């Protein structure tokens, strides 16, 4: 509801943002698509011509591809599992009356604000170092042999580091969602004779389902793109090469742009599948 | 009305929650503590917790050796510049979408969101190549623009959700009172939206500060921010725990403090208004 | 200075026509009230005059000049919104000064006008406060103050009293009426409350579905409603509309009798019925009588207190000279 005048003003004021994002999206996307069909090796003669679907088939048939997909899925799944399960429990706990609630919340949320390179490095050296790491001390204290975390349990270690960063995010969002639950609903259920467990499963959890879905989708998109944590810790070794890292290696380390770009196209498609679900939820929310 | 809770129950909650909270916070706490230890104490077995000789030596070593100030300046310029630029571009756009919605507004908002979903690695080489061709690899201005573009969807969304809470009648009143579009945005909308704009600035500053894909891949020396500074500690300096801790503390301390102020906005900003 | 003419003004949102082409003239100095049920297009009509919406077609003239394409700021109109729309970050003084500041008026003149308005509206002590620290009635007065300092050609009010509690509403109603008597400026006032319309207006415009049902003075509408809709909408309690054989006796499809125009007796009368609910207000008694063919219940208004209660049998007689007759289209038969 507005006048013609304000509508045309609105169009002009929206233009810079729309234009910039359009360029930002289309130009690199088209270039990636273009390169993915080229035989492009900057260090070995440059653009060697059209490659057809060669890059796409080679990327998929390379021995590194399926392991990297598996690693990606394990890492994303592991992080989601940890952050949702513990996130729900923590959110419920933090919603309970206690002393110093504000401070506990600050403690819990803090890891989210830690720079990824810092958290990776701190975990790698000060916690997971097999000689001097805190975990090594702890293992020895209980009489066990310290683990060489980033070699022997490399994927688990990455999951641990990434979860440490994303659990706070999940907790914070789930806590916000819990706090928006009308306490009268719970009281009504209690009067209707529901046990605490029943109240959790039939009232609280359904109320949280939307927030959980959002956490799952957002974290999936971000965790699919995890880079610094691997770059700093294992450099993709010991089975921690994710799809993102594989593409990075193809592009910047072995400088096979065509192959890397084909991988990039796969990554974009994968992310878009997740994004569609997220956008549908967000879009529904816009209507009211 | 909440009922009174027995203090035993409350004490139990408190103990459990504090234990978990401290456990989660422990790596940060440990890093901060270690930064004040000597290298020997940092790797002492068994580890020392609080009772050691507190020293600032690590900080002075790190500051001397690695030109910390240059990295810090780069971080401030890149994070601050990209956020300010983003807000300047996003305020008019968010105004349009919040107060003059059309049938396409929803689609535009969702499309903007979708650009945020584009995996960075998918467009790594094109951006890398463009930077080389334009001669802006390892250039602060280029990173300002790139990080601005990365966060622009979030900035537009956050401002949009804040603006939507401002009643349109107030802007119409300003229009009736003779305000031009510029007056309306400058004297009425912006002052009313200051809390929202501040939260948006804060959260996006944090996100830009911590961004570690483009800053690692597109910088080497001149434009390298703190993310790269820390990554350079990967080895062999990383084995000097106390110095690593001092460097880490300096990289995260400012943002940790800002971050604590922005908890609430974080939820709104990162869920695109879907959870409030 | 404040004559507003609408010529064939039409408003459509997409394919939905909210206001079919409509003509209306508002004379300088008049207090005009647009009244109608919610969704009748009265607010849209006001916003068209204000310039906050585009007209789809037609012409709006203010003082003989075509203002159809003028932006709101250029129309010399002031508006008071339902939510008051005060600027929350500005003090009362700054709120009132805002239109003057936008007009780049010199400071001395600004101050003079603000002081005068504040005095007239009893706001002098509150000039340094912010809207959040004021009561509903005070906010309302600030909104009016912001409107009057501009000395506009006409004031537009969009349901300004609907956010106030009942007692305050009566007080503000009087204040606005007095303001009009003092300023003698054209006022266009939108409300869904027919009591506000009856008490304040020089001229009432009754709207339904974007169509003007009738224009006239309050008593015109009360005494000679042009159709069944106006008859039912104006007057409280509502007019009784009787259909069927009783109406046919008067050669009409429907006859209407206002509750205050029915004589009641416990022994004899034209219609017989039983009292359902009896509302004893002290000054008046409203009886809702069941059993009259063609209208259930019939509402009767009796001055003072009467000893009639639920279940009593009563006889009703409409006063012959106060019966309104309507044809099959709902139009008045005179």
Automatic annotation (TrEMBL), chain A:
Name of this protein: Sugar ABC transporter permease
Keywords: Cell membrane, Membrane, Transmembrane, Transmembrane helix, Transport
SUPFAM superfamilies: MetI-like (SSF161098)
Membrane topology: Multi-pass membrane protein
GO cellular component, one term: plasma membrane
Location (main, coarse): membrane
Family annotation (CDD domains): TM_PBP2 (cd06261)
InterPro entries: ABC_transporter_permease, MetI-like, MetI-like_sf
PROSITE patterns: ABC_TM1 (PS50928)
A Pfam family it matches: BPD_transp_1
Segments forming domain ABC transmembrane type-1: 69-278
Regions crossing the membrane: 12-37, 64-94, 106-123, 155-178, 211-237, 257-279
GO biological-process terms attached to the record: transmembrane transport
Localization in the cell: Cell membrane
Similarity field: Belongs to the binding-protein-dependent transport system permease family.
Cytoplasm as UniProt keyword: no
TrEMBL record, chain B:
GO annotations of cellular component type: plasma membrane
Domain of life from the UniProt record: Bacteria
Membrane-protein topology: Multi-pass membrane protein
Transmembrane segments: 12-33, 76-96, 108-129, 141-163, 184-209, 240-261
Chain ranges of the ABC transmembrane type-1 domain: 72-262
Gene3D superfamilies assigned: MetI-like
Keywords: Cell membrane, Membrane, Transmembrane, Transmembrane helix, Transport
Pfam families to which the protein is assigned, alphabetical: BPD_transp_1 (PF00528)
Subcellular location: Cell membrane
GO terms, biological process: transmembrane transport
Main location per the UniProt record: membrane
Database matches in InterPro entries: BP-dep_ABC_trans_perm (IPR050901), MetI-like (IPR000515), MetI-like_sf (IPR035906)
Family as reported in the entry's similarity comment: Belongs to the binding-protein-dependent transport system permease family.
Protein name stated in the entry: Sugar ABC transporter permease
UniProtKB/TrEMBL annotation, chain C:
SUPFAM superfamilies hit by this protein: MOP-like (SSF50331), P-loop containing nucleoside triphosphate hydrolases (SSF52540)
InterPro entries, A to Z: AAA+_ATPase, ABC_transporter-like_ATP-bd, ABC_transporter-like_CS, ABC_transpr_MalK-like, ABC_transpr_MalK/UgpC-like, Mo/tungstate-bd_C_term_dom, NA-bd_OB-fold, P-loop_NTPase
Annotated keywords: ATP-binding, Nucleotide-binding, Transport
CDD domains, A to Z: ABC_MalK_N
Chain segments annotated as transmembrane: none
One GO CC term, this protein: ATP-binding cassette (ABC) transporter complex, substrate-binding subunit-containing
Family assignment from sequence similarity: Belongs to the ABC transporter superfamily.
Name of this chain's protein: Sugar ABC transporter ATP-binding protein
UniProt source species: Pararhodobacter oceanensis
